[in-house]
Specification:
Elements: H1 2-12, E1 34-35, E2 40-45, H2 47-58, E3 63-69, H3 81-87, H4 98-110, E4 124-128, H5 138-151, E5 157-160, E6 169-171, E7 176-177, E8 186-188, H6 193-201, E9 215-220, H7 221-225, E10 235-240, H8 242-245, E11 249-256, H9 263-266, H10 269-273, H11 276-281, E12 285-289, H12 322-336
Parallel strand pairs: 1-11, 2-3, 2-11, 3-4, 4-5, 6-8, 7-8, 11-12
Antiparallel strand pairs: 9-10, 10-12
Helix pairs in contact: 1-3
């Protein structure tokens, strides 16, 4: 058990942080939302990037774009923590067999465990790897780029790999030193990753001003996800622009945090500091921020990572996987307005 714990800590040990502030709830419950769930987009950092890829490929029939920061190819870990460590994080001990990884997706599609891969042809994909990132190798990110090229029209893929960012979510002016990877893993890089990503994934966005009028609401993930939410935190978060709260039809974006970047550790930093909300606020985009939790028992996940190596089940990378199912269930819940709200009332979060 001690060895396993150390291995898991190594693959996920990205961060440490501060406790979640009570200011994470909006004053009132989540309003009924009218979401276009046929054109969802996703994003994620590191372990969250791996999950964003998995969610995109599992549901490419209605997830139409993915923005992925510092992650390797789909099914890189091959349901094995040792493989994850040796090939998919900060080293590549042996060459990664990209054809074998992609063949798993072909098999899953033939079993209807993921959407048909033809659904990826017209997808929009935005990839990022910082030149100062030593936590996830450029080789891994390069292979994700090559993998998407085999499924998606090349003109729909953007790969940014020339920015001097460390292992974090780069922003215009939020977070810590751009060249250093440290909690809460938001980098002050004079580079708007959120804006560049969303402008590629979604057409005709309005350039936002600096004010954010929308609110972050707390949702009960456990109630929405049911038994599939066992490895998730009790609370997740949804950013809702004012227009969306008033009943206008809005887009949906889902953003997956990295290891040790969940709210219990970094407070509202990932939910409010990446720059995503700033763009979402002026463009009628609701943003779902699902949250994991740490576990010191089986299934062992001491750093609160999203499952990209199989700690939940062998189906972690397809539609049968508990976490993928849980997030899909959350979307259904917030879209219908029939959400089980928490009873705690606190102030609204200050957004980016």
């Amino acid at each position: 058990m001690k060895t396993t714990y150390k291995i898991l800590a190594s693959v996920c040990a990205l961060y440490s942080g501060v406790a979640l502030s009570n200011a994470a709830n909006a004053d009132d419950g989540l309003p009924p939302l009218s979401l276009d769930v046929e054109k969802v987009t996703v994003s994620g950092l590191s372990a969250g990037g791996y999950m964003a890829t998995q969610f995109h490929i599992a549901h490419s029939d209605w997830v139409k774009g993915a923005g992925i920061i510092a992650a390797g190819p789909y099914y890189c870990a091959q349901n094995d923590i040792t493989t994850a460590l040796n090939q998919c994080v900060n080293k590549v001990d042996t060459p990664i067999n990209l054809e074998a990884l992609s063949s798993v997706a072909v098999d899953y599609a033939s079993e209807d465990s993921i959407a048909p891969l033809t659904g990826l042809k017209d997808a929009k994909v935005w990839l990022f790897h910082g030149t100062n990132d030593v936590r996830v190798t450029s080789q891994a990110s390069d292979l994700l780029y090559r993998q998407y090229q085999s499924w998606t029209d090349t003109q729909n893929i953007v790969y940014v790999n020339d920015q001097p960012a460390a292992h974090h979510f780069p922003t215009l002016n939020k977070g810590s030193n751009c060249g250093v990877s440290e909690s809460p893993f938001i980098g002050n890089c004079n580079y708007d990753a959120a804006g560049n990503m969303l402008n590629h994934l979604l057409p005709n966005l309005t350039t936002p001003d600096d004010s954010v009028s929308g609110k972050v609401y707390t949702i009960s993930q456990q109630k929405l996800a049911g038994s599939d939410g066992e490895t998730l935190a009790e609370k997740g978060f949804v950013f809702v622009p004012e227009n969306c709260a008033s009943g206008e039809s809005c887009s949906l974006h889902i953003s997956f945090h990295g290891c040790n970047q969940y709210a219990e550790v970094v407070g509202n930093s990932y939910v409010t500091k990446t720059g995503i909300n700033r763009w979402a606020d002026d463009n009628n985009i609701v943003v779902l921020y699902p949250q994991t939790k740490k576990s010191l028992f089986m299934p062992l996940n001491p750093q609160g990572c999203w499952d990209w190596w199989g700690y939940t089940s062998d189906d972690y990378a397809n539609r049968k996987g508990a976490q993928i199912s849980a997030v899909a269930n959350m979307i259904k819940g917030i879209n219908t307005g029939t959400i089980n709200k928490t009873t705690t009332n606190t102030g609204a979060v200050n957004n980016d």
